[in-house]
Amino acid sequence: MNASFHDLQGASVFITGGGNGIGAALTDGFLSQGAKVAFVGRSDASGFVREMGDKHEQAPLFIQCDITDIPALQGAMDQAVAVHGPLNVLVNNAANDMRYDAMDITEADWDSQHAVNAKAYFFACQKAASLMAPKGSIINYSSITYMMGLAGMAPYVTANAGITGMTRALAREWGPKGIRVNAIAPGWVFTEKQETMWATPEAKAAFLQKQCLQEFMKPQDMVGGTLFLASSTSAMMTGQTIVIDAGVVGTG
């Protein structure tokens, strides 16, 4: 990291999907600031936990659960607080960006996508607000897909538009409590999943031409903005969506 956020030293941080992709980079980034990190994921992450423990001399707390199981998700957050103390930061990062032809989407497809990409976000926020004392920062990961109106992923695009609306509503409702709620909208970040499933050389080359900055984005590129929103450096920012996409979309 090029910057240190001193108030994150010892902070209690909870990340959904913190064991792979962007989430793993975020776990690493918060640990590098001296934060106490807990994260959830569906797959076993014990190897990653050992790696982080060796690197930072402080291992993250991993709690295996499916975030669509709301009682399990909220129970994991209680467990994290029992170990690390009152929650300071929630990062809703876990997502599922499956591709669908809109005419083929079933009700079950729609519900499963929104269970991951919208419902779990809200109930993680709700639980976080009850665990933050006296203040806290919630960071919801959205996506520029809803700004671009991308075809082939209507449930995901719809959910990410909703995440920004939810972020604004909760920022307004919980501002008097001192809880800040912001969103980050990444561009195309080339995680292992993206490289394996969708990032053909042709697709990557075409997308690169949409960017102002002619470099492919990596998970590590999302860390600095997230730490900034988590830190009191951004103390008077709430209800905002920050785009980190190498210049694909315009805001303002």
- Percent helix: 40-55%
Give the helix/strand class.
Answer: alpha/beta
Main β-sheet, spatial strand arrangement: 3-2-1-4-5-6-7
Distance between the termini: 28 Å
Strand content: 15-25%
Protein name: SDR family oxidoreductase
Family: Belongs to the short-chain dehydrogenases/reductases (SDR) family.
InterPro entries: KR_dom, NAD(P)-bd_dom_sf, SDR_fam
Domain Ketoreductase: 11-188
Commentary on this structure:
- Residues 11-188 form the Ketoreductase domain.
- Belongs to the short-chain dehydrogenases/reductases (SDR) family.
- It comes from Yoonia algicola.
- The chain is an alpha/beta fold and 252 residues long.
- It has a single domain (9-244), classed as NAD(P)-binding Rossmann-like Domain (Rossmann fold), CATH 3.40.50.720.
- 44% of the residues lie in helices and 17% in strands.
- The chain contains 9 helices and 7 strands.
- It has helices spanning 21-32, 46-56, 70-84, 107-131, 145-148, 154-174, 192-197, 201-208, 223-230, and strands at residues 12-16, 36-41, 61-64, 87-92, 132-141, 179-186, 241-244.
- A 7-stranded parallel sheet has the order 3-2-1-4-5-6-7, with helices on both faces.
- Helix 1 links the parallel strand 1 (12-16) and strand 2.
